[in-house]
Amino acid sequence: RKCVKGCVFAPYFDSEQGTAHFAAVHKVFGASNASKLLLRVPAHKRLDAVVSLCYEALSRVRDPVYGCVGHIFTLQQQVVNLQAELAYVQARLSILQRLPSSAPLRQQSPTPTFHRFSSDLESSSNMPMHFDPRHSAVASFCSPLDDDEFEDGDLRTLAREFVSKYLSDVKRRPSSSP
């Protein structure tokens, strides 16, 4: 159906995606209910209300049981996983900082550093059971150091490279030289 003159939906549902979005809103909320809701919202906030209605409706069409709550659960799980990964990296960094700085990295025990410390961390931390540091984004950061790479044991350089590689969106404090 075409909008009549003065239709509350006309400014918000364009001809490209508007039809599909309106169909979802109509199916989930009903045109009458959506219209009543939009008329109660101040005109300057209606676009936000329409965006929310469309998001909720499209989510409900894709997932009739959970709707947008399923997406929220997924995001919450990602937060839990990232917090566990951060805790692991912080623990690993703490361990690396306690290593004697004068000892060359090549002369460490033959047991790979990552595996030796990961088992200690897994048993002593409160990481979720499904977090496996060997398959995380930090695996390359926590893996045994190559002989020719980081010969001077510069932990700050290693940390900066990790942050720039994996956490490019994070704002960093300026580093202070020791």
TrEMBL record:
Entry-linked Pfam families: LOB
Gene Ontology terms: biological process: hormone-mediated signaling pathway; positive regulation of DNA-templated transcription
One of the record's GO cellular component terms: nucleus
Domain called LOB: residue spans: 1-93
UniProt similarity note: Belongs to the LOB domain-containing protein family.
PANTHER family: LOB DOMAIN CONTAINING PROTEIN, LOB DOMAIN-CONTAINING PROTEIN 19
Protein's name according to its UniProt entry: LOB domain-containing protein
Organism encoding this protein: Escallonia herrerae
